[in-house]
Design a protein that fits this description.
globular; alpha+beta; 5-stranded mixed β-barrel; 19% strand; 7 strands; 232 residues; 6 helices
Length: 232
């Protein structure tokens, strides 16, 4: 499936699943060990191809339509990752719970987004963007895209692995009717609780070692956040 330019049709995948049953049933009646193993391997291969393709169909159908790229969309959801803070803002994963209508039309938005929120005057994003918080945000999105240069980091594949089907940024709400606002400080779920604990441990390490360049390495070893490692 990784080498194909397109996925097989659903009817073909269903046919492969039915076809996989035949060698699996036949293998039970075969006594010769080599033939029995061959039948089981054939059934497993057919089932594996269909299984991988069906999973790909499921994840790739959660897509941002081109018509909604680069347009203001207001969404409600939660910060469901450990935010990454940088000098001019924050990056985080956003789990969409609701999409507000836009001029009477409901935009189609993927369930998980990779967002950047750039700091403006008077904002302290490090204090606002916390794991598990529910927000109403106006965003501009685009479909996942990464450079195709050989031997470099495949950003598009990285997004797909994490089921992030659109990227974008939070719009400044100074001229917008709908403001960016926190609706709830914390929404309980096992995943959000883990992210809050990771965030607290990261902050404790960074505060305890404010002038040590290896603090980011300790954070990566403790909570798996490699983004805090200094480029040196």
């Amino acid at each position: 499936m990784q080498t194909r330019a397109s996925l097989p049709d659903v009817w073909l995948l269903c046919g492969l699943l039915l076809l996989a049953i035949l060698p699996a049933v036949t293998a039970r009646k075969i006594r010769h060990p080599c033939l029995k193993s061959a039948a089981n391997m054939l059934a497993g291969a057919l089932f594996g191809i269909a299984w991988a393709a069906l999973f790909a169909q499921y994840y790739l159908q959660d897509v941002l339509p081109p018509v909604w790229e680069g347009r203001d969309i207001t969404v409600i959801g939660t910060v469901d990752s450990l935010p990454s803070y940088f000098e001019s803002g924050a990056r985080f994963t956003f789990a969409v719970e609701k999409v507000l209508d836009q001029d009477g039309v409901s935009p189609i938005v993927p369930k998980r987004l990779a967002l950047a929120w750039y700091q403006t005057e008077g904002q302290l994003l490090s204090a606002q963007v916390q794991p598990g918080a529910r927000w109403q945000l106006t965003v501009r999105l685009k479909r996942p895209h990464g450079n195709a240069n050989p031997h470099l980091f495949d950003y598009e594949a990285w997004l797909l692995e994490r089921n992030l089907r659109a990227t974008g940024y939070v719009r400044s709400d100074q001229k917008l009717a709908l403001k960016n606002q926190q609706l709830q400080a914390f929404v309980f779920s096992p995943g959000n609780l883990i992210q809050v604990l990771r965030s607290g441990l990261r902050e404790r390490i960074l505060q305890a070692l404010p002038e040590h360049r290896y603090a980011g390495v300790l954070v990566a070893l403790a909570v798996g956040d490699q983004r805090a490692i200094d480029q040196w």
